[in-house]
Amino acid sequence: MTNEELVSLYRMMLLIRYLEDKAGEMYAYGRIGGFLHLYIGEEAVAVGAIPLLRDDDDLITHYRDHGYAIARGIDPKRIMAELFGKATGTSKGKGGSMHLCDAERHFWGGYAIVGGHLPLACGLGLAAQYQGQGRVVLAIFGDGATNGGEFHEAMNMAALWKLPVVFLCENNFYAMGTHISHDSAVQEVYRKAAAYDMPSSRVDGMDVLAVREAAANAIDHARSGQGPYLLEAVTYRFRGHSMADPEMYRSKEEVEEWRKRDPITQFRDKLMEQGVLTKEQNQGIEQEVTAEIDEAVRFAEESPEPPPEALYQDLYSEPVR
What we know:
Layout: H1 3-28, H2 43-49, E1 58-62, H3 66-71, H4 76-83, E2 107-111, H5 118-131, E3 137-142, H6 149-161, E4 165-171, H7 180-183, E5 200-204, H8 208-223, E6 229-234, H9 252-259, H10 263-273, H11 279-302
Parallel strand pairs: 1-2, 1-3, 3-4, 4-6, 5-6
Helix pairs in contact: 1-2, 1-10, 1-11, 2-8, 4-11, 5-6
């Protein structure tokens, strides 16, 4: 990668972090309603994997989805507007935090039902295979989803039909609030692929370049027609499962230990050590990102609410002829 590309990845991670921090602040002020699941600590996974996709590849995710939207190139203003429930949001203010979506970017949204989007990923994969256009599907989910039936059904179907689906598990160990050692007989998620004769691997999800390399291998495998791939990224969320989470299931000491491996500061320090990024450049990027997120909040605040008639719009798709 060129120095410019490396700095671009760093800026993207910082943009996700700043948007998430601001979203948490706006939620506390009551400007964002419903549930809010922050991605803070896991940025290296989205930024390492999603930019590798082609524009026509499909991306489908779970509900901790703000970072994926940014990595897919969606304007932060539209993301923030959706969090505010405004008509200018990605889902016209109807989806909120858990249901970001952008059909033009083949981003099929966050899904609130844990694991419920994985069979849909197989449907997208079947369409891609049928059309023969070389597209792949990236399906992202958490470790908690791997204990549900949808995960196993989707893995089996994808393997049986050799669908071009990359199953990317963000293993942050706690699902909603139970450590993986208490709810899964197999704690190394990538090993679950063995039941379906599917290739798999595990990567350090706190290292953006390691994720990029592993994801590139998985995507190439799926695009070549060899079938699906399971990639496990070992990561950690620094905040609770949601803003309503009291975090009684883990110690502050454990969180602080993981914070020492913050993927953003690790990557920044590495770029500085290699002379790719200077202190002055970094300050400039931080100022740019701060201004961009402040503008996103201003845009969201000034955007209109969805009109009452929006309740009856977008209920059905146009028939295919």
